[in-house]
Amino acid sequence: MSEQPKRSNDTASYDKVDTNIRYNEKNDAELDPFEINFLPEHQQGRGPREPFVNEHGVLIGDHQYESDNSPLQQWSEETDPSIMSGDQWVHPFKDVGFQTTENRELFEQNIPPQAHPFLHPDKDVAYQTFDEDSDTAEGAQPSQPASRSASKKK
């Protein structure tokens, strides 16, 4: 597996993308139903505003989400999921994920996301392997999720 180069600035992961493509000749990069009203501080250094072809030959930002060159179209048990990680797979301005309440509040109003919808108030559902206070041998998985309050009383 090849090692990712270190990012020298905010747009380093977009250095290998190609925005000089036929798709952009006929489409206005400013007009997009998935784009939100980013505050000025969230617009700087994000990457290209227009759709681009990433280093794997996949068009990103057209909202079709399918491409013959995409690993998603050629997935098998041998495919390493990490091939689909990184900024080169997400459009910095026109991603459907920006429409979520949390992202709109963050990028349009500077309201940070609240953790409470994503955390259970009294249960730790992480494997005990990763819990410092666990007596479980490394690599073992608990048969049931442990209660945080119960595991702290040991």
From TrEMBL:
Residue numbers spanned by region Disordered: 1-28, 63-88, 111-154
Domain of life of the source: Bacteria
Compositionally biased intervals (Polar residues): 67-76
Record's compositionally biased regions (Low complexity): 140-154
InterPro entries in the cross-refs: DUF3905
Record protein name field: DUF3905 domain-containing protein
Upper classification of the organism: Bacteria, Bacillati, Bacillota, Bacilli, Bacillales
